[in-house]
Amino acid sequence: MTAGSPVLLGLDIGTYSSKGVLVGVDGRIVAQHVIAHQISMPAPGHVEQDADAVWWGDAQTLIRTLLQGVDPARVVGVACSAIGPTLLPLDERGAPLRPGILYGVDTRAGAQIDAMNHDLGEDQVFLHSNMALTSQAIGPKIRWLREHEPALWARTRTLTTASSYLVYRLTGRHVMDHHTGAHFMPLYDPRTRQWSETFRAAVLADRGLDLLPDLAWSDERAGVVTAEAGALTGLRPGTPVAVGTVDALAEAISVGATQPGDLMVMYGSTTFFVLVQTAPTPDPRVWSVGGAFPGQVNLAAGMGTTGSLTRWMADEFARELPTDQAYDALFAEAARIDPGADGLLMLPYLSGERTPINDPRARGVIAGLTLTHTRGHLFRAALEGVGFGIRHNLEAFSDLGADIRRVIAVGGGTKGRVWLQIVSDITGVSQEMAQISLGASYGDAFLAGRAAGVLAPEELQRWIQPAEPVVPNMAAKRTYDRLYPLYRDLYTTTASTVHALSQ
């Protein structure tokens, strides 16, 4: 790559960190940068982030850092992804009215889900949206906002999400991708791929659909960098900006999971699943949504607390060590313990659980604890608990006849192979990986190239170099096959207790 050759800028705002990357049109990495940040939990079940301080603030810092020593004229396209679906109300000037309300880990709208299912008919909502109302759905969170913060609601002029807010700050246009739009249910019609009047009043009352952004595909051009955004970021005004998407879909693109039958498993703060399909297979346990590219559909699912669980354990059980060393120590200790963690079993539901049980009142449970168990056993049990949860989701996909041809792993949890091996042993499924595993920001760079008109969809495969797959150990699988029914029973038998405790 020559010094003046064109580059693509990808930005991803995650739950606990933001990442940016400059990539050549040929897929080679020019520069990358990461910023850590936090979430806010102002009340039980409420999970938020500041849109300007975290989302837009991190984006500006990433861009300026990546452009150090790089002529902005070399950047021919920009794309952003972010945690999602999130809810952010904006006033008439486009300024945030409150912190953004996060995706399915925020469970505040349980009463609104119950009320909408009762008033509208649970079956009718599912038939309209191809999904059931869960904590992932934005419609009930909009209703929560209307009911609990009426003064703020009266000032709201736009309802947007994290990736769309970044695009707005860069281009001045409010636009949302179809994958995210589907989660704004029941306001989105997956058949027409437009906002729908059918259940508008149940969500927006007397307000209109003009509160919502335009809809487009992730790789379409949203607009160009404005003079104001250029002054704040250092980008050249007029640079094309893609519509972008949620982080999970960008992660899928980053490892080439774009063909029918490709299933991406994202090991992040939460575990997310994206299966590319030729036609939707709706089921109340999971989510049927739009894909990245025109006409595509995805079957998606997501767990509530996975990487967040390992982070919590590192923070609480290895406080004497810096974060990186804490992870290294805990994974090393877990690797020395046999499958089954010497009789420990953990439900990883510390933030409730999303798919396939969709229970915001679920809680973490540790069963079988004795005085002989160590923190290494607890960490092993946590990794195995997530693995059992992944198996539960894969079984839900299989039950509804979804065609999975290959599984591709990506995300921070793929570093090292301990966790991946545990999951392959539990599920009996081989997991492919890519040599470049930067995650969503790398997928964003490809979307930037699409929006700029310098890349065709089929060129993504030139960017992806496969790594050695993780193959199941069948002896370990036999152990896990005996434990998996106990894992499923543990939730059933403790549900009433943890539901009472969650109050």
From TrEMBL:
**Does the keyword Nucleus belong to this entry?**
no
One GO molecular function term of this record is: phosphotransferase activity, alcohol group as acceptor
Instruction: Enumerate the spans annotated as Carbohydrate kinase FGGY N-terminal domain.
Output: 8-252
Q: Does the keyword ATP-binding apply?
A: no
Give the domain of life.
Bacteria
Keywords for the protein's UniProt record, in alphabetical order: Kinase, Plasmid, Transferase
Pfam families in the cross-refs: FGGY_C (PF02782), FGGY_N (PF00370)
Task: Specify the Carbohydrate kinase FGGY C-terminal domain's residue ranges.
Answer: 264-452
GO:BP terms for this protein?
Answer: carbohydrate metabolic process
Signal peptide boundaries? none
Record's family?
Belongs to the FGGY kinase family.
Protein name (Swiss-Prot/TrEMBL): Putative xylulokinase
Q: Which organism is it from?
A: Deinococcus deserti (strain DSM 17065 / CIP 109153 / LMG 22923 / VCD115)
Q: Highest lineage ranks of the organism? A: Bacteria, Thermotogati, Deinococcota, Deinococci, Deinococcales
Gene label: xylB
